[in-house]
């Protein structure tokens, strides 16, 4: 019984040494195998999905696009997802056209600018200075003749 207990302890010690990379009794191990079983390489393999060489952030090109795709900046990623969903709903489900969308946006922009310029008289604020462009009579006549 004591022999069996010692045998189990020696097996457990060997397993623990193999895991921690402290087994120097085997002379057939190459240097590469020892490096691969070191704790630092085991730790790096844990954090790499499927044992890849590069992290996922670098695979996606790094920078802001990778941050958005990997949801590191949640507000920007949510905005991109919301804009893509809204455009999909507009163009696919509602069958809205891009030219119609640009037309409606420009009409809305003109209405807002008109209301803004009209509201400046009611709140007694000076409207923004828009420079006037004058074309001289000589330039106007030469353009007509060409």
Automatic annotation (TrEMBL):
GO terms for cellular component: endoplasmic reticulum membrane. Residues 65-146 form the Reticulon domain. It is a multi-pass membrane protein. Residues 20-39 are annotated as: Disordered. The chain crosses the membrane at residues 101-123. Keywords: Endoplasmic reticulum, Membrane, Transmembrane, Transmembrane helix. It is found in: Endoplasmic reticulum membrane. One of its GO terms (biological process) is response to bacterium. InterPro entries: Reticulon (IPR003388), Reticulon-like (IPR045064). This is Reticulon-like protein.
